[in-house]
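Re: the 241-residue chain
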Amino acid sequence: MPGPFQYCVWFLCTLLEVSVVVCSLAKGSFRRYLSLNVYMLAACFVNLARFKILFTYGFKSSEYGYFYYYSDLLLTIGLYCALMGLYSYVFEEMGAEQYVRLGALLLLLGTAGFSFAIVQQSSSRMGHFVLDSRVMGHLVLEASQNLYFVGLVLTYVLWGAMLKLRETRTRLIQLVLALGLYFSVFAASYALRNLSTGLSDLWPYLIPVSGCLLPMAWAYAFWRIPEEARIAPSRLAVVPR
C-alpha cells in the first residue's frame, strides 16, 4: 500500500501535469504542441482514475493491478506519439511529416509484434500458449518495457538530428531533452529491476519522483521559454582540442 510520501508525490505529479496544459494554453501553444498536451491530459485522467480504483478496490486488488498496467501501456503509447510529434516539429521545414508518421506506425507495430513473440516463446516453454489474463499481463508489461527502450533510442536519435540540423528553437530543445531524461530514467529502472534485487527498496521512492521530472520540465518550457527564443545546441557538441 502506498505511504504518505507516495501519495504526496502522486498528487504533486498530477498537479504538474495539469500545469503543463494550463501553461501551454496561457502561452497560446496548445494546438501547436497538441500531442504533448493530449498526453498530459490523458496522464492526469489516468492518475485520477487510479486514485478512484485504489480507494474503491484496494492496492492489491486485481482491478487496480489490471488498470495500472493497461493504462501504463496506453500512456506509453501516448508518450511515443508525443515523441513523434516532436519529430514532426524538427522536420517540418523539410516536409517529412508523412514519412515520420509512417515510420512511427511501422515501428510501433514492430515493437508490439516483437513483444508478442517474446511472450509467446516464454509461455510456450511452460506449456500450451493461451491468451489468458496472466499472459496478457505479461504481454502488456513486456510491450511497455520495449516501448520505453525504443522511445529512449528515438529521443537521442532526434537529439542527434537536431545537432546535425543546427536546430535553434530553445523551447523545442528543452522539450526533447526533458523527454530523453524521462525515458532514460524509466528504461534504466526496468532494466535494473530485472537484473538486481538489492535496489528494490528504492523503487517506491525513485519512480514516483522521476515521474515528476517530465511535467515539471515541460511546464517550465511553456511558461518561461518564448516560442521565438533561439539557442545554438551545436555548441554543446564542440569538444575543445
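The first helix runs from residue 4 to 26.
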